[in-house]
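Please review this one.

:::
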Amino acid sequence: MKYINKKFTIEKVSIESIAKKYGTPSYCYSLKKLRENINNFKQSFKSISPLICFAIKSNTNLKLIKEIKKFGLGADVVSMGELMIAIKAGINPKKIVFSGVGKTLEEIKYAIKKNILLINAESESEIKQIEKIAKLKKKKVQIGIRLNPNTDARTLSQISTGKKENKFGVNGKTFIQLVNYCKKSNYIELKCLSVHIGSQILNHKPYEKMLKAVNQILNKADHKFEFIDLGGGMGIQYNNNNEKLNYSKYNLAITKFLKNHKTKIIFEPGRSIIGSTGILISKVVYIKKNVGKNFIILDAAMNDLMRPALYGAKHTILPSLWSRKFSKKTYEFVGPICESTDKFLTLKKFQELSEKELVVICDVGAYGISLSSNYNVRPKPIELLIDGSKIKVIKKRQKYEEII
């Protein structure tokens, strides 16, 4: 994604031409970037040969998941709906892990029926529920137990999952008790220790600390685990100020860990695979002049892209046409929804804009469309897959009649 002849393009297509044909707001994904991200991830961890399970929650578009499946990836799911999408996309059930703290009876039954690789349980009650269903179906079910390693991922508090005050997983003492419980069961086969400490992690050190916690538990557990599921959480650069996660150092830490524990590693990347592939094209509806700053009111809103309102996340915003004429006022990019949190970014330096011009919100491939809603009875945007000069509609723009 770059400027060609001062026009912002995704692969070989200008966003001006996309907006003219498909309207705004529009989600666009680069197929080339998706392939690059997957190949880079696989290459970075080639020496440990992990099972890579794409985190479906990061982007639930069926067509994109089908493209991801072509690279041999599995799926990490957290609901029955996500499991259904993964299976419909053609992902091998033996490459699917089911995570989440609140799996319902219906969801567990469905997962067992589909013979997925693992149900990663997060409480004693859940394990007993799985065991009860397995007994009724006269099946032995493969599970993992999620450990809460009490590790600070040094990320936003809203997306931290590995500290003791978070709802996810069980502490070390409970983990050992559950391992012993599973050993006595005729209907549960304990295959995996699962762990996940958070999202948008940009430093390898929290992962090193997590591996030390896992190592300590394994030494106490007296159980041979076939899999260690290290979760995902690998961050991306949303702006030039962010540090970048060093895959080489993380890979080295895992290699050292595997010298003492001969197990298969599972990863659950989402953002690192899909995040940088997507942009959201939006049009300037109005420019509302105010003392000290101008509100740039877009036709995209927090229902289209929730991350800024939910986490205070900052996505780079770029003009569709490049010029060097900058505004003397601060620009605050906002949406039309009746909430003060419906804003994307405040910039003291941005080129001059006029009404009806287009802007691009970058790096929205992860947790963009999957967190979108119909708040204010707003239709969800169209989704487009760009392959060179080809444009493919992978999800139609929602119609009002479909909502009402």
Observations:
- Residues 159-163 have pLDDT under 50 and may be disordered.
- Residues 31-273 form a domain with the TIM Barrel fold (CATH 3.20.20.10).
